[in-house]
Amino acid sequence: MSTEKLFVFGCYRFFVTQHLLMEGDRPLRIGSRAREILAMLLERAGEIVPKEALMRRVWPSTCVEDGTLRVHMVALRSALKKDRSVLRYIETVTGIGYRFVAPLEVQWASAERGAADLDRHPLSRIVEYLEKNNVLVALDNGSRVIAPSVWAATLREMSGQN
Question: Mean of the pLDDT values across residues 58-78?
Fold first, then answer.
């Protein structure tokens, strides 16, 4: 069984290899760019990470402006605001970059742990029931029917587990 690095802060856990952010026992849905920004800030916790370094990592072959980075930082901060016990996780260093400032613990966990946590997500259990019982789900006031396999694929896509 392989192990993977895990960052723990507030009520969150971030599985490095899987780029999976968990809030308690449920996966937290954030965009892939926000996850990549978070990964770099966690790896360099306490250090000022220059904006240019973040942009090179998140958009390696694309030229982007500071505004693009700011948009993803707002999304990341918004997702992390659910934990009221810590006032802030990420500090802006005006004109330079960002710094992860919250208490952070590094742990090692089995690589399968993140996927196991995903299986405990309530929506995942619903999908499992739908698949097991071959239930079709009607959406949009009955105008569309979704097969269980599509629900499962959608859940995996939403959680970043493709």
Answer: 90
d(CA 63, CA 104): 32
Structure tokens belonging to residue 53: 């370094």
pLDDT of the residue at 73? 92
**Spatial contact of 67 and 76, defined as CB atoms under 8 Å apart:** no
Tracing tokens 């069984």 back to the chain, one arrives at 1
Residue 99 CB-half CA count within 13 A: 11
Is residue 145 packed enough to be buried (19+ CB in 10 Å), middle (13-18) or exposed (0-12)?
Answer: exposed
Mean pLDDT throughout 121-141? 52
Instruction: Give the distance from CA 13 to its chain's centroid.
Output: 9
Q: What is the DSSP string of 73-113?
A: HHHHHHHHTT-TTSS-SEEEETTTEEEE-S--EEEEEETTH
Number of H helices, E strands in the chain: 6, 10
54-60, long-range: CB < 8 A, 24+ apart: 54/97, 54/98, 58/33, 59/33
Residue entry with tokens 């859940």:
155
